[in-house]
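Cross-check.
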Amino acid sequence: MTTERDDRQGHLPTLLACFLHFDLSFMLWVLVGALGILIAEDLHLSPSQRGVLVALPILSGSLLRIPLGLLSDRLGARRVGAAMLAFLFVPLTIGWLWAGSWPMMMTLGVLLGTAGASFAVALPLASAWYPANRQGLVMGIAAAGNSGTVVTNLVAPRLAATIGWHGVLGVAMIPLALVLATFLLTAREAPARPRAAAPWAVLRQADLWWFCLFYSVTFGGYVGLSSFLPLFLRDQQGLVPATAGMLTAMAAFVGSFSRPVGGWLADRVGGHRLLTVALSGLAAAYAGIATAPALGPLTAVLVLAMACCGLGNGAVFQLVPLRFRNELGLVTGIVGAIGGVGGFCLPMLLGTVRQQFGGFGPGFVLMAAAALAVTCGVRYLGATHSRGHSWQPARPLADGSGRGTTYSGVA
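Predicted model, tokenized:
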């Protein structure tokens, strides 16, 4: 077994810039969902259309993570990240001035989803500055920018009550301009690392697809619930937009805060162990939501679900930068994309189930079963790894051969 010295010491301004990039991007990525009640009432949307309205930004942002992650590896994450923020002025301007019909809202949703691709830019840029034994914590801090969902769900519905939902999209350009300027001034590329493997070599790595599966449940649950909860709470509990937004923000805050905690714990107890616990808890929480409890118990299980999603997210991305260190932009993009597709499927599933069955229960039962099945997958991998038969976490060399140093923190 070979060893490799890791003498990276970190760069705090870049880490903070990546946090702001991700935070602002998440604010914009779920903005349509936070305003979903008002938009749906204004445009007279059906339950299935409401699901599509919320899901479109998630889908487009998720798919864009792959090409932007690849560009980050090749052109530099700082350059790609700045260009991405600049582009977001386009959909916000459309939403502010022209979005008044269903086709225009679909266009807005697709373009605004670009914000979700920040994942494949901000995380690799921050990670590249830090050594292996700090990856869980650093990736957790940078990705805690998903707390932008908290800000959006707290502020957007209240602001829309005063200036309208069109006005909120216009006002959002102010923090966007501030974060873009800060990112350009403070973020820096890390010193050059070894050349990344060719994309097709990375795609042949089985570990990549296991990480994708795990993240589709943990991150997909977090972003899907963050986007759909206002509509869910309105339909099932009859809450007004401001109250639904407040409860969504509370649950999203727990999920966001638990992500760096999950990374920190994964550095110490192992990502595999923590992921098993998080997915088991998530399955139990979804099963509890399916029983349609009263608002108090419902709030408790929603918070539990978001906490488990956050812990699971931290665990997955403690493992990813250790396994795919030189190809982190591309791998983060792929894993993040599949995770986002999970978030796209969640509101689509719940919206369709609501329209077909008159309630959300069957949808949450299916989600609980999926989380439980993935938990079994994690346990299987842990067992086979301990026997030395498969999932040997050797870091691939630049040629994609798979030979290299083993990493810790898995079993």
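DSSP finds 18 helices and no strands in the chain. The CA atoms of residues 2 and 85 lie 40 Å apart. Passed to J.P. for a second look.
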